[in-house]
Design the sequence.
């Protein structure tokens, strides 16, 4: 009898242990699902630039599509993004067209875009310039002729792409093909920046940026004019322009403006202001490139200020 009771107690404890394990596993699974769902909501809200709000219909599919897209799993991304249609946002459309350009074909994807819509023009340019270098020289020439003759709205973006790729002489040539070059701030900026980075071109860059600044104004024009003046040994003239650029810029690139403002301050011996500008730049941009540039500025600052 005593042995039977022991077996019953053992069986009861065993069943309790099994039941407890199941409950714990269910709880962990639910917690993981809840946490994952909340994380998805936060990620989507951040992606859409929202502070609050629940995950909209199709949001989970959109996130799955973005993850697949970033992993270069483009076919999978297309499936998820097509299920996210209820969101009906530009972000879904952008990722879907980009994914299709890798799966269906980039020229087929371009055919779906309306170049009269600024956002779609930008997407068209992004896809075209990504794939253009993969074409044969003959095909590249044909596309460039097409841009000049049929898609003149792409001339300035293409020039900017060439500039960002370090092809400064070609960028200069293409920017000057802009249909209304004399009234195109972006085309003239591309020419000025191309001269700035070319050997012996900073004097011409200064002239171009001065013209842009007085014709169009704006933080970017003030920055490039001021930066070029600093490079050309005129920091006292550059400082008001760089201060204007910093005070009127709302973008992340203000870290560049602060860095060059700090350099100009250092060159005229305004040591405390230079140090402050460098610190503010680092607070906004901790990339290796920015850190290295600022360190070079601090080295010069230490000589000028005898620290």
Sequence:
């Amino acid at each position: 009898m005593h042995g039977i009771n022991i077996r019953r107690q053992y069986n009861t404890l065993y069943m309790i242990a099994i039941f407890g394990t199941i409950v714990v596993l269910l709880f962990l699974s639910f917690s993981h699902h809840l946490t994952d769902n909340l994380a998805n909501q936060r990620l989507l809200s951040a992606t859409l630039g929202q502070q609050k709000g629940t995950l909209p219909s199709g949001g989970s599919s959109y996130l799955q599509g973005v993850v697949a897209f970033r992993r270069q799993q483009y076919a999978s991304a297309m499936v998820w993004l097509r299920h996210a249609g209820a969101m009906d946002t530009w972000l879904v459309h952008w990722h879907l067209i980009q994914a299709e350009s890798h799966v269906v074909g980039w020229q087929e994807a371009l055919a779906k875009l309306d170049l009269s819509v600024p956002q779609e023009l930008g997407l068209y340019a992004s896809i075209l310039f990504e794939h253009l270098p993969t074409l044969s020289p003959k095909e590249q020439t044909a596309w460039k002729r097409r841009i000049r003759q049929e898609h003149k709205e792409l001339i300035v973006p293409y020039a900017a792409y060439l500039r960002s790729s370090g092809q400064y002489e070609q960028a200069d040539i293409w920017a000057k093909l802009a249909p209304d070059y004399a009234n195109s701030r972006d085309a003239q900026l591309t020419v000025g920046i191309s001269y700035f980075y070319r050997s012996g071109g900073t004097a011409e860059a200064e002239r171009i940026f001065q013209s842009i600044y007085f014709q169009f104004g704006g933080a970017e024009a003030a920055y490039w004019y001021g930066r070029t003046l600093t490079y050309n040994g005129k920091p006292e003239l550059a400082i008001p322009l760089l201060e204007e650029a910093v005070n009127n810029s709302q973008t992340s690139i203000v870290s560049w403006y602060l860095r060059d403002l700090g350099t100009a301050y250092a060159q005229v011996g305004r040591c405390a202001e230079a140090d402050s500008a460098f610190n503010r730049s680092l607070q906004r941009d901790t990339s290796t490139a920015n850190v290295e540039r600022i360190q070079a500025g601090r080295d010069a600052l230490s000589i000028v200020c005898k620290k």
In short: The longest helix spans residues 2-47. The radius of gyration is 29 Å. Residues 13-58 have pLDDT under 50 and may be disordered. DSSP finds 16 helices and no strands in the chain.
